Structures are given as C-alpha cells and as structure tokens.
Amino acid sequence: MGTFSTTGRAGTPAGREATVSATLRLTREGFAIELWRGRFEVQVDGQQAGSIEPHGSIEMPVQAGQHTLRIQKGRFCSPEREFDVSNGQTALFRCYGANIWPRWVLSLLIPSLAISLRRE
Description:
By secondary structure, this protein is mostly beta strands. 8% of the residues lie in helices and 44% in strands.
C-alpha cells in the first residue's frame, strides 16, 4: 500500500520518503482505568509506525488511499481496521486497553480483545 512516515518521537523509517497528502490521528483514551498499561505500538499497513502512551495522541502523515491500522502490545492486539483517506482528509481513531475485568480475562485467551480500536 502507500508509504508513510511518522512525526515526533518515532521519526521517519530509514530509506522511506513520504508523499504526504492526508493525516492519521490516533488518540488513546478510554472511559475507565485501562488494565493493559504501558506503551502501545502502532502499525500502519503492517509496518511499525510509532507508539502511543496512555492518555496520549499521535499524528502521522499518510498517502491518500486505503490503509490498515493495528495497535499492539506484545502478543496482545486490536483487530486490524481498514480505512480510506482522501487528499487533505484526516482519519481519526481512538484506542484503549481492556478496562473491565471480564474483557481483560478473555483477552488472555483471545489476544485480539485486549485493545479496542474504533474510528471516530
């Protein structure tokens, strides 16, 4: 899929130039205390694109077109979400770790339940 780069702490992946025409904004906020804590890794189109701290947000430029997004912490992850973004558009997503104990326990058996990822 399209090339991408990140801004801030993560920097630009080595050897990759980005043609920026759209933005991906990810916020990490839930409605209660997260039971999965620490830094989450952000993957765009199957490649490491940065990380996000609790109560943080990250913005990264992406090419216009279709992309995939997944959040991961070790073996635990969110479901992969596809999104389409046009020139000048911003794709907004929100993620958070499991915050009620039944979901947390289930995520030990089904790792894709550990992190919630939703488009806003």
